[in-house]
Amino acid sequence: MRHPASCVLLFLVLLGVAGCSYPIRNEAIVSANRDQYKWTDPGPNSFGDTLVIVTASGGGTRAAALSMAVLKTMDAVRLASGRSLADEIDILSSVSGGSVTAGYFALTGAAGLPTLEKNFIRKDGMTPLLLRGLNPVGLAVLSTPSTERIDLLIDYLDQQLFKDATFKALIGRRPYLILNAADMVEGVPFPFTQYTMDLLCSDLTPMKLSTAVAASAAFPVALSPVTLKNYQPCKIKSPPGWLKQAARTSWYLDPPRVALGRTAQAYASGEKKYIHLLDGGIADNLGVNEPFRLLTSDDVAPLFKDDIAKGRIRKIIFVMVNARSAKPSELDSQQATPGVIDMLTASIGASIDRASFSTAERLRTLLLTDFRGIANDADTAGFKDIAANFRTVAGNTKFLAVDFDAIANPACRESFHSIATSWSLSGQEIDALNAMGEALLAQHHDFPAMLQMVGGRPERTFRTIEEACALLPSPGG
Amino acid sequence: MIFVTVSEPVGREVYANGVYDQSRGQAAVTLLLDPGSHVFEAVISVGADRFVDFDGEVTDVGDLEKMVVALQPVVPRRLIEP
């Protein structure tokens, strides 16, 4: 072949022929006797009766940086055992940008946070993604089914942080990681746990962490979904028993159980052959849905409600990191009809931001009010021990929301709410987020009581909200 | 909230709703449940296999009830698939 253009054309044809199959991102369960990534009881220790849950919201690098700052602050609280409060986190549940931090913390612990900051948070993540996608070879490759836009993010996450690590690397480590995506067809949360993957007859353990993090962060349209294959019918694993019970439960008695059961049944029956996953923020931008379920449902393991009833859990620390964006929009002050891009970004962003608000209130109601309601029910039914145990937990639950809405100064609050949802932030913005995450946790009105409850002692002086505000000028200033 | 006390078989580990990862305790044990349908099983292990040999059910119970359930033998016992 003598003509150079023919060579290029042949190359492209061969590339297209070779890449005619869509990527399969998950594996089937092939054996019942295998290592599995599941919750394991941490065992008796000085913290055995205290459940520590941290949730990290979506919001690109803004969320990754804010949740990193909170974990650093928790790592600076020393306990009598010599361990830090960050070492004692039992559950870490996250969405989108928060999932980058959560995934890397679960893999490396607090020791990995400097690498997270250097290799991801302080890096311009947008330019490499755009350059990889928009060069001629990149465009050609993306035009084949075998490579999708989400692969740009998966590859970048592996290159910078995860190095192809899988969930297998998390076995035996704490915290128990829950990365949350959303089923784009059902609009419901899809937590990456083995309990969820069992419904698809799929093994979570060999899945790359970068794939699950990318699914959690697959912002609609800009990135393509992560598609999982449903391997039902399953010869190795039967559908969970609770599905039958949920199908026989009246919707009037337990609507969440019935609704969840219907979706789960659609997975387990094989009716849905492929599950397309997008940014978890579509369904729950705080990452609180699955911890909520673990605390309230009868159909899961671990069953924390049972542990509370039996007095095995007597205290709960729940740190909820919310990096919600609330940037003022100019659309409200212009008569001109918004264009297509404005409509698209507003509709996606507004629904994700609203999905941050209602679930936070539900969780607060559960942790601070429903436990007392369960205690009253138990008293009425004559179960004094159960009642006493729930009252103990209700009185020893600290719910610390790290949220820009807590910033009293309106100009400062607007500054932080206006930080872009992007994979690229300035050094100044990251310095400010580092300071504000620390300050919002340490200055929370329940922080001193929480320290006293766990016998924790700060190793350093934490920054104040005012000091953090000074690091980020207001948008008009 | 429903409070179900599984009274029999005494001393045997009880599981609920087909979730075999976590025992609910040894019968007689009181289970704290949301309203709805629930099934309870006592499980024995024989070698590497686990079998359901006792079970019982409450169907669509409303809120704020309490009851005592004695599980009944399952014959032949049912193998728990992994």
List the helices and strands and how they pair.
The complex is a heterodimer of chains A (477) and B (82).
Chain A: H1 4-18, E1 27-28, E2 50-56, H2 60-75, E3 77-78, E4 91-95, H3 96-108, H4 113-121, H5 126-134, H6 136-142, H7 149-162, E5 176-183, E6 188-192, H8 194-198, E7 202-203, H9 209-216, E8 226-229, H10 242-247, H11 255-268, E9 274-279, H12 281-284, H13 289-296, H14 304-309, E10 315-322, H15 340-381, H16 384-395, E11 397-403, H17 410-417, H18 427-442, H19 447-454, E12 457-458, H20 465-470
Parallel strand pairs in A: 2-4, 2-10, 4-5, 10-11
Antiparallel strand pairs in A: 1-7, 3-12, 5-6, 5-9, 8-9
Helix pairs in contact in A: 2-3, 2-4, 2-18, 3-9, 5-6, 5-7, 7-9, 15-16
Chain B: E1 2-8, E2 13-16, E3 25-26, E4 29-33, E5 36-46, E6 49-61, E7 65-70, E8 72-79
Parallel strand pairs in B: 1-7
Antiparallel strand pairs in B: 1-4, 2-3, 2-5, 5-6, 6-8
Explain what you see.
- The complex is a heterodimer of chains A (about 475) and B (about 80).
- Chain A has helices at about 5-20, 60-75, 95-110, 115-120, 125-135, 135-140, 150-160, 195-200, 210-215, 240-245, 255-270, 280-285, 290-295, 305-310, 340-380, 385-395, 410-415, 425-440, 445-455, 465-470; strands at about 25-30, 50-55, 75-80, 90-95, 175-185, 190, 200-205, 225-230, 275-280, 315-320, 395-405, 455-460.
- Chain A has about 475 residues and is of the alpha/beta class.
- In chain A, strands 2, 4, 5, 6, 8, 9, 10 and 11 form an 8-stranded mixed sheet that branches. A two-stranded antiparallel sheet of chain A has the order 1-7. In chain A, strands 3-12 form a two-stranded antiparallel ribbon.
- In chain A, helix 5 packs across helix 6 and helix 7 (about 150-160) packs across helix 9.
- The termini of chain A are far apart.
- By secondary structure, chain B is mainly β.
- The mean pLDDT of chain B is about 90.
- The interface of A and B includes residues 238 and 386 of A.
